[in-house]
Write a structure and sequence with these properties.
alpha+beta; Immunoglobulin-like; six-stranded mixed beta sheet
């Protein structure tokens, strides 16, 4: 019976194994093409990644009159919007963004975030979390009318407003309507926010950095239709390009900077300021001070009763913002962009000097030069950096942090580099997404990640020893090797990720750095990146357009890279599993390989040729090149790189033979930390070869 039972068991087990062997599986190869993930190419968006012959894009023009009430920290505005339906679709309604409603008394934004009582918190944080009086924010829409003044039906849904058309807006037609509104401006220093005012108790003055201050049209395209997602406060904006005519009325003693070309310089600037401004436009080596600190300090001691109106026209921009204060110092310098003069400006209060005076305008100028080199010549006439004590960007103007932090009024290197870093980043946003106009609400990485990569190049141009925070592969290791339950793929909506900075800024910037420095090479990468930038200037690219263009312009299949780095949370971990050594013995026409079993990498006898059979394993999920450094007995080193495709047949381990006329004493993987390897304990053989490997590990920690 035992023999029969054993036989039956063997038969059943064998049949099961046979059945399992016949079961199929889907294509799990890491080099599988991105056919299912990417949308089908069409006549609007081609398979090469460039806009197609039938690509269309809406246009929206604004004429606005804005009044800032300094005494009551309130903005009142009216606008006429002209919407051009350039799509092939008839539109039954239009969608408008009401971003200020995020701060309305009935806003749902506070309700979507969980929180607990902390044992201790700073007073400022406590006051923000538990204000004595609830802020009465949000748009107060006074009227929505047709051009003839008749009421226009509309429906407000939190931060969105639907314009209910009486008949569909035909393809190729335009629709013009009016909106008037007002809202209370938030104190962004105590209440948070991407715009608002900062209050100074010394003389009761405010610095205003104003954005999202007007109802703005949503994007309508062939990828999303209407991009009318709610604004919850994190993921930013999707906007159409258009022309703006804007009149901004502020107190007479204010200095103001805004998107667009100033139309009435002689009315708003003193003759002395006009003369200095003219000098700045011809000065390329250093900033020229147009309103001095002494003049600003005198100005802030009293408040003008009169007002003045600044008039601007901005062509082909996607948004509008301005900054204004009686405290502002103003400096500017000319920047040569391939023979064309562009102006770099800074507006800042005395509290930000001398840090801003030393670095703000110079950093802005460097940004325009570096970004123009790697993308396209900056097409606008200016870029302004404002002492806004936040990091936020808009066309031609941005709001940045940084103030002296030392007792003597000076600033530390830490503060200096932080301020320069953010200034370069925010000025750089003029390129991504203010010109290469991706959908920030959906794909945060397409502006933040690409911009963070470009920021690295500008920082190194500004200072070759700049302490890069994000972008180097070793700097992303801690995030990528963290708790997988709190990590999302890059291809995730910004509102839904845990570590927003690492996910949308750090990891995509690192991915591009690795592509340029390790996988593609500078020449191929730079050409492809510039091609993408120029193809999608003043247009709405999607992730597929970026992925396809980078491959199309470089001639490199990168689907494996996009899949691993952007669609998964896999990590790099490549190690040395084992090494065998062989000598050779000739017997007539035959060469026999004989394993040398002595310890370590040494051979028992001197050889004319040393043969090593090295098995590399890959505990990590990402496929990456194997970068190997061989150290020889004479102290010299040699580096060998195996392309990522080496893993195409076996995703777990591969074996390679390496032969040399010199004896090897150490084998090290990724010696320069190029691949974001999360575990370096398996990167060296033999591991007991102490000094070199110990210093290697310290680089990871550093």
């Amino acid at each position: 019976m035992k023999k029969i039972g054993l036989a039956l068991f063997s038969l059943v087990f064998g049949l099961n194994s046979f059945a399992q062997a016949k079961q199929g599986h889907t294509n799990q190869n890491k080099f599988k093409q991105l056919k299912q993930e990417l949308p089908t190419p069409n006549l609007e968006r081609t398979a090469s990644g460039k806009p197609g012959k039938e690509y269309t894009q809406q246009k929206v023009d604004y004429v606005m009159d804005i009044t800032l009430d300094d005494a009551n920290t309130k903005i009142t505005g009216s606008e006429t919007i002209t919407y051009h339906n350039n799509s092939k679709d008839d539109l039954e309604y239009l969608w408008v963004q009401l971003d200020q409603n995020m701060r309305a008394s009935d806003s749902k934004t506070p309700d979507i975030t969980s929180g607990k009582i902390r044992s201790k918190m700073s007073k400022s944080r406590f006051e923000r979390a538990f204000p004595k009086e609830k802020f009465d924010g949000g748009f107060n829409i006074m009227s929505v009318t047709n051009v003839d003044g008749s009421d226009l039906s509309h429906t407000i849904n939190q931060t969105m407003m639907r314009i209910n058309l009486t008949s569909p807006l035909a393809s190729g037609a335009t629709f013009k309507f009016n909106i008037s509104w007002w809202y209370n401006i938030n104190n962004h220093r105590t209440q948070g926010g991407r715009s608002g005012y900062e209050h100074f108790t010394e003389n009761g003055n405010n610095n205003y950095v104003i954005a999202q201050f007007y109802p703005r049209m949503c994007v309508y395209d062939n990828v999303e239709g209407w991009q009318n997602d709610q604004f919850w406060g994190r993921s930013e904006f999707a906007l159409e390009f258009g022309d703006f005519t804007v009149n901004i009325t502020v107190p007479e003693d204010h200095m103001l900077g805004a998107t667009g070309v100033l139309q009435n310089e002689s009315e708003v600037l003193s003759k002395k300021e006009q003369k200095r401004w003219a000098k700045a436009q011809k000065t390329f080596d250093k900033p020229v001070i147009i309103r001095t600190q002494k003049e600003a300090e005198k100005n802030e001691k009293s408040k003008a009763a009169d007002v003045k109106t600044w008039k601007f026209i901005a062509k082909n921009v996607r948004d509008y913002a301005f900054a204004t204060s009686r405290k502002f110092i103003w400096d500017a310098m000319a920047v040569d962009i391939n023979g064309r003069t562009v102006m770099a400006h800074s507006l800042y209060s005395k509290e930000a000097n001398p840090l801003y005076g030393d670095h703000s305008t110079r950093a802005a100028a460097q940004t325009l030069v570096t970004y123009s080199k790697y993308t396209f010549d900056y097409p606008y006439h200016k870029a302004i950096s404002v002492d806004g004590q936040m990091g936020m960007e808009y066309p031609q103007i941005c709001f940045n942090p940084g103030r002296p932090d030392l007792p003597d009024g000076g600033y530390s290197d830490r503060m200096k580099y932080r301020m320069i870093k953010v200034t370069i980043h925010e000025v750089g946003h003029n390129f991504f997404p203010m010109i290469v106009n991706s959908d920030e609400r959906q794909w945060t990485w397409m502006d933040e990640g690409l911009n963070s990569y470009m920021e690295m190049l500008a920082e190194l141009d500004y200072d070759p020893n700049f302490p890069i925070v994000r972008g180097y592969p070793k700097n992303i290791v801690r995030y990528m090797s963290g708790d997988q339950s709190r990590i999302a793929p890059i291809m995730s909506k910004g509102d839904n990720v845990y570590s927003f900075g690492s996910n949308a800024y750090g990891k995509p910037a690192t991915a591009l750095w690795i592509l340029r420095e390790t996988i593609m090479g500078k020449e191929l990468f730079d050409h492809a990146f510039k091609t993408y930038s120029q193809r999608w200037m003043f247009k709405h690219p999607s992730p597929a357009d970026f992925f396809r263009t980078m491959e199309d312009a470089s001639g490199i299949d990168l689907d494996w890279f996009w899949r691993g780095w952007f669609y998964t949370t896999d990590v790099t971990d490549i190690g040395i599993k084992g090494v065998k050594k062989y000598t050779t013995q000739e017997d007539g026409n035959t060469v026999a390989f004989v394993e040398d079993t002595s310890e370590g990498l040494g051979f028992s006898e001197k050889q004319d040729k040393y043969h090593y059979e090295i098995t590399y394993n890959k505990p990590g999920g990402l496929v990456m090149p194997i970068i190997v450094q061989f150290t020889y007995k004479d102290g010299t080193k040699e580096k060998k790189t195996y392309p990522a495709q080496i893993w195409r047949y076996n995703d777990k381990e591969v074996t390679k033979v390496f032969s040399s006329s010199k004896q090897i004493t150490n084998i090290m993987i990724d010696p320069d930390l190029e691949t974001a390897d999360v575990d370096t304990s398996n990167n060296s053989f033999p591991t007991e070869n102490g000094d070199k490997f110990d210093s290697f590990k310290k680089k990871i920690k550093g």
